[in-house]
Amino acid sequence: MLQLSFNSISEPLLGPKWQGIFNNYWPAYKKWFETNGADKKPSLGIAQNRLERYMPEMMPTYNRLCELAGDDLTAHRFLTGWQPPAYISGCSQAVLPSTPQLVRNYDYHPHLMEGILLNSSWNGKQVMAISDCLVGVLDGMNSDGLVVSLTFGGRRTVTRGFGIPFVLRYLLEFCSDVNEAAEALKRVPTHMAYNIMLLDKTGAHKMVMLTPGNEPKVTDLLVSANHQGELYWPDRERFPNSLERERFLNTMMSNPNLDPWEMAASFLHPPLFNTRYKRGAGTIYTTVYRPAERYMQMRWPDKTINQSFDYFEESSTPVYIHAPELEEEPKQDF
Q: Which domain holds residue 262?
């Protein structure tokens, strides 16, 4: 049995709490970054130029992050989000526009999980989001009622662009609804294939397929797993039952009388809930977002964390994952 800790942290403006997160996780991120050669190619100057070109509103936040990170230029390079090493997660997600509600599972290796729900207000909008890459977002919601979430798109291709968690942070910091977020995704390049689910408090929704070398495809799809149309990834163990998960979700969402909480509960059971932790494809958490109610949940089979913009409680929650064959070190993505 593996124990993880999920920490709910509230810090409106960047300060000592974020600096503590950085100090705790940066050594591991730095090792990963340098091992893959991303600290030197492209250069810090090029990476900063790309951030200013594509997401200029983030520059004051970026400068503050660098100030808190100190004089480590590798950290400054990392925090631009430009051209990171390849990283791959599983995941399933679906939106119920009538409620409105977004539910997602995040499937990854437990040893690579920050386990932080960060409540912040860096640029005027309050943001509750699951943290990744110190400043990025795996899924989250802002106080204007915009929800964003990702699943990997199932393609090996890597190109010039930003790591998607950095882009999702940008969406939550500066976009207020689905249309604004979709337009931003059309113009900000990302370095790998992802399916981005967007939902806002009105029930408006879009699923945007980002594929290196192609224009973003904006759809009205309600669900996504780890492929885009066809399943291209040859390692079926890496992304178990992606087609089955998509079919299950589509069948569930076709029910006109679907209960929102029954929908959420289904993510805690097969085929959506995965246990291939050894392969880096086990379900680490489930999140439920209700933007019209300014409310979200983090769920596991045996416990639930409830948070809202009106009442956010800092806490540290132990979570136990049954993974008896888990390796000491995760396998490389490629």
A: 2-321
